[in-house]
Amino acid sequence: MDFISILSIFVMACFVGYYVVWSVTPALHTPLMAVTNAISSVIIVGALIAAAAGSQADGGQTAKWLGLVGVVLASVNIFGGFAVTERMLAMYKKKERK
Amino acid sequence: MRNALVGASALLFSTPALAASGEAVNPWVAAAYLVAGVLFILALRGLSSPESSRAGNRFGMVGMLIAVVTTLWTHSIASLPEIAGAIAIGGVIGFVIARRIAMTDMPQLVAAFHSLVGLAAVLVGIAAYLNPGAFGILDATGEILTVSRVELGLGVAIGAITFSGSVIAFLKLNGNMSGAPIMLPLRHVINLGVLAAIIGLTAYFAIAPTVGTGAIFWTIVGLSFLIGFLLIIPIGGADMPVVVSMLNSYSGWAAAAMGFTLGNTAMIITGALVGSSGAILSYIMCKAMNRSFISVIAGGFGADSGPSEGAAKIDRPWKRGSAEDAAYMMKQAENVIIIPGYGMAVAQAQHALREMGDMLKEQGVGVKYAIHPVAGRMPGHMNVLLAEANVPYDEVFELEDINSEFAQADVAFIIGANDVVNPAAKTDKGSPIYGMPVFDVDKAKTIFFVKRSMGGVGYAGVDNEVFYMDQTMMLLSDAKKMCEEIVKAL
């Protein structure tokens, strides 16, 4: 993809983010932070590419290990972030009407 | 979706030339990442109400699964067992932490998680620099593309700032490091200098010939770790909600920068979402404290706690109440508004408080909880703490929704909060909290103020007029013990 189409996606996504986040109820701001944390770990994609590539280039071997460490860190975040969000959201209950 | 993925892989294997470039040229692959990005948008959209929130979280998980599987599928993997092992190790650690963490420790956990995203971004950036071929960012002559160098420089810089800043925020929130601001002499000059150096070096890194750029790249990384550290140490504990939100935003921008490098839609959409989310939360927090973002970043708040205030405080008359008084008055009341603050959470009083609320409701009293945006240590923290104590979320109200009701309230029950009910914010122009939105508790018929002693003051270090009002009764005790005594007296 050329730079300008990537930039267009980015700018549009910023606007989407702006409106979507304002619609989040303040009561759920902590789960919002936890889940944004989890999804920002999509950076794992970069770490996977580094880890998956063989060591054909000079820096390939180092890059691979850096990638693997990156995969571990991002996985902590992905699993931890989604699980803790799930745990918090399960606590929000409505009033029981008798 | 499954079909699309299978189709994607089939197409890809038939065109091996594309796989080598590492770019998502294949339309199916690009579509898969786009779907992941859209699922992430839906994950945040779900949080607009507690009912839809859990479905939203599931969308997020599916999105992540698609992104990971697509990446693994489309790259010729030289080391699948190692990758699986890395995911398993990280997954188990993350899962165990998520299950064990106490809800009061949520701000530290989020800060710690942000630091991991930051560090991962730095590692990915370094890996891309060392092995650019695998990331498809080489031009015809075998040099890293100029635009990619800018993205790499920015990506590692933001990632490193996120990492070291979050580590400091974690240490401050977790109490390993004093919450008091650490003020270096000439810190603004130093910080601006380092920032300028990072920007300048990134520009030079982009235009310089590849030979010899190694030193520049590593200097950018080093300086960025340093500036993250320098930026957060002068910021006091009271401003940590803003800092945590701000670092949330940075972790998003770091992911976005890496997304640009890889031309990956899922990463770019996510980065933009997370970046805006953190920025909006920082804005909300600043507004709730009536502080400008710049003054928070400049730091130093809470270093000197109102020296002029102390003298006049001691000799003013105030009334002391007992648990029996509170129980009696609240039983008679038609409606009670409870205002919990962070002190309530520190005393672990949320369960006893909920029990008190339940007893009152059984006696036909209307009970509502009023929450200030800065009631906890991070945005929405108090709502989570109350939810954990089984307070139904439809009894919990935000500042602007409930503030008009104090005029009709029989009792305002303040527990562990102070600055957020201080009328000085409305009247006293000289007060450090002037202009901060506060609850109009002074309009309630009776006020009960649970506080450990008359000596302590809130974060801002200001005396509170509410202590000395005619309708106020001070309940001097530990928050948890007081709630338990009131429950007994009911």
UniProtKB/TrEMBL annotation, chain A:
It comes from the Bacteria. It comes from Parasphingorhabdus cellanae. It is found in: Cell inner membrane. This is proton-translocating NAD(P)(+) transhydrogenase. The lineage of its organism: Bacteria, Pseudomonadati, Pseudomonadota, Alphaproteobacteria, Sphingomonadales. It catalyses: NAD(+) + NADPH + H(+)(in) = NADH + NADP(+) + H(+)(out). InterPro entries: NADP_transhyd_a_C. Its EC number is 7.1.1.1. The keyword NADP applies. It is a multi-pass membrane protein. Keywords: Cell inner membrane, Cell membrane, Membrane, NAD, NADP, Translocase, Transmembrane, Transmembrane helix. Residues 7-94 form the NAD(P) transhydrogenase alpha subunit C-terminal domain. The transhydrogenation between NADH and NADP is coupled to respiration and ATP hydrolysis and functions as a proton pump across the membrane. The chain crosses the membrane at residues 6-25, 32-53, 65-85.
